[in-house]
Amino acid sequence: MNNLGKNIWVFPDAFLPVEGNPYKTSNSGDQYSHESLCIVNSNDESSELNIIFLFEDRDPIDNFKFIILAKRSLHLRLDKIVFDNKTKLPREVPYSIILQSKLKIVAQLSRLDTTSSYNSFMTSLGWGTNV
């Protein structure tokens, strides 16, 4: 299962909704609006990942780095990221994501929106390339 996926994933449509209302879950507590990068590393070794966040009207946030361990799945909650300058991703601002990996991985973006009484969930595979 090594080399499953791509080295670069692009997600053009990202949008972190306002926190919203609590969505009742079973044992894990209430959930609120958020996005997650869902990543699979099927390789025999860990991979360094780099994320770039691009915006329509402001400078990018780049070089957010982390490690995904070998033979693991990761659900990176984007509302939980705190950057070096102690800021977070802005809510209600459209952005795009470029995810780069040293090794091939599989990635998708998911969003839970709890801003109305009709909660919605969406997920999307990104565009992957090895270039």
How would you describe what is shown here?
With 131 residues, the protein is mostly beta strands. Helices cover 0% and strands 53% of the residues. It has no helices and 8 strands. Strands 1, 2, 3, 4, 5, 6, 7 and 8 form an 8-stranded antiparallel beta sheet that branches. The chain is globular and about 40 Å long. It starts with 5 loop residues before the first strand and ends with a strand.
Query: How many structural domains in the coordinates?
Result: 1
Radius of gyration: 15 Å
CATH architecture annotation name: Sandwich
Arithmetic mean pLDDT: 87
CATH level-four homologous superfamily name:
TM1070-like
Q: Give me the strand/helix succession.
A: EEEEEEEE
Number of helices: 0
Total strands: 8
The CATH class assignment is Mainly Beta
Keywords, please?
eight-stranded antiparallel beta sheet; 131 residues; mainly beta; 0% helix; Hypothetical Protein Tm1070, Chain: A
Q: Nutshell version of this structure?
A:
The model has no long low-confidence stretch (mean pLDDT 87). Helices cover 0% and strands 53% of the residues. It has a single domain (6-129), classed as TM1070-like (Hypothetical Protein Tm1070, Chain: A).
Spell out the blueprint of helices and strands.
Elements: E1 6-15, E2 34-41, E3 47-55, E4 61-68, E5 72-77, E6 94-113, E7 120-125, E8 127-129
Antiparallel strand pairs: 1-6, 1-8, 2-5, 2-6, 3-4, 3-6, 6-7
